[in-house]
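My main concern about presentation is that the manuscript never shows what a single data entry looks like. In essence, backbone conformation is discretised, so a fold becomes a row of integers matching the chain in length. An entry of this sort, consisting of the sequence and the corresponding backbone structure tokens, reads as follows:
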Amino acid sequence: MNVYPDSLTATEIQEIFDSFPIIHEQKKRLQSSSQANFTISLSRPIRDKLSELFRFPIKNDVPMRWIRGDLPLHMDIAPKQDDFLRTYLIFLTGDEKGNFIIDSETLSISPGLAVSFPSGTMHGTLNTCTERLLLGPMNEMSIPVGFTGIYYQNSFNSQYYNSTDHSGSLLTITDISFIIPPGKIFSGWSLENSSYGTYTINGITNPPIGTIYPPGTLWSSDSVSGIFVSSVYTDDVVCFGKDSLILTIDPNNLEERYLPVQSLTTDHYVKIYKPKKSQELDYKKVKKIGYNILKNPGDHSRSKNRMYQLSKNVYPDLFQDLYLTGCHSILVDRLTTSQKTSILKQFGRVFCTDDKYRLMTCVDERTIPYMKEEDIMIYHFALEDTNPRRNFGVYANGLLVETAFEHDFVKRQSLFSSF
């Protein structure tokens, strides 16, 4: 990690604000959103200065971002791009109480603070109380990077919780009954406002309005009579339906047995697909497992973010029907031309796990949209490996399907509750 406390002078920062009215226009979007993303064209002197500082040629158009509220610890990704080397960002505004958290270090947010760090580094913010403007975050190709997924806030659906009923208790998925739109997945709640007094969330007294919290966040109250919170939801998650049977193995006697996905723990070993030339063992230990709720739509649409039925009458390897979310992939030897075209249109490129192609259930013509409009528990897990960006083929109800990546699991840590 590299830290540059005064990457830009106050004069240079003011020049940026004065030269681009779009900065002030985009800030207004924070009235209804927690972020506003846009681009500007820096002056040649400032662009050259930052190119020398970061040691890569910054392009004419650079990404900018207004942010309101704290961001939970996360890893950055780039859209349609799995690999990049570093994240680069500069705070153009300060925050009197706010801190930038990266690994085990805490940095005070001040105008001109620049930070660069390797891809995959956990970072976030804490105690921010004012809107802040960032140049970036971007990678070494000037492509914007950031938190996984797009988060939507049901501000119109805010709910009131009084301190008598909820103070000092864990606010979990079942405790807060938000209305989540069909095809979306509950990922937390956002503080709207409080009626009066002092309240504490995650050990922080009176945190800023708009802060997003994951399910299971501890809220306590001293004198506040209540708080208003709203739901936050996201999409594009790869998961198993409840009671999907995963083939496990006992490494001591190599005995194999199927276990429900919701019963897996980090003590279990899962049987994996092993390519012919692989020298690896044919099992891996469970590293992470989590769950959440999917709001399944009750229509015929073949969308990514819904549950699909895979019938044992259609898939010869299945010994009973399997239920997967739309982005979950079956591992196959080949893809048809129409399947490749659909995958490229919806996901940007074709993916592989080992020597198998990933065929998403929303693309596979053999799957059937599960048409009950209801809340469905969904589960996923990642296996131990030296490479956190690697996933594996495992057997669910007899069919070869993919696991999650540990890297992707960590990025979405605010989305999944852990066992």
